What we know:
CATH topology: Mannose-Binding Protein A, Chain A
Protein name: C-type lectin domain-containing protein
Shape: globular
CATH class: Alpha Beta
CATH superfamily: Mannose-Binding Protein A, subunit A
Strand content: 35-45%
Structural class: mainly beta
Organism: Oryzias sinensis (Chinese medaka)
CATH architecture: Roll
Distance between the termini: 60 Å
InterPro entries: C-type_lectin-like, C-type_lectin-like/link_sf, CTDL_fold
Helix content: 10-25%
Amino acid sequence: MRSCSVCIYFQHIEIDQNTVRAEAWTYAYSKGSNLQWHEARQWCQKHFVDMVSIKNKEEAEYLDSFLPHNPTYYWIGVQKVAAKWTWVDTSKPVPLPALRSPAVLMENVRRQWGISPASVTLVSWVSTVRKVSKTFSKKKQKTNS
């Protein structure tokens, strides 16, 4: 099975308290991993911030739109802690069945999330990364005048 990890870097830009605030995420993915889930997460933490945690349907659809269809799987930031699936960045529960596997993959071929044992060793790690930036929200703050 070929796989890679999807990493995330969060940017919060606030030019002035009374002007535009932008929240943006920069995604990066590696090609052709032979890393297990914990190793892939350590790689993301070393080079970026962490593995991606999907916040909403828009973000999931965006990831689906730019991730290549090869390799088949991507490691993402979900882990099993105390018999509950949680996002790695917030520790909030994920609405997935509590299976025995400690890690989650994104299956890009069918555009679905899936579960895979962390003991699966992935093949041929190549440290090639593609960065993609996407701004999901821009908010104007009201002035008190």
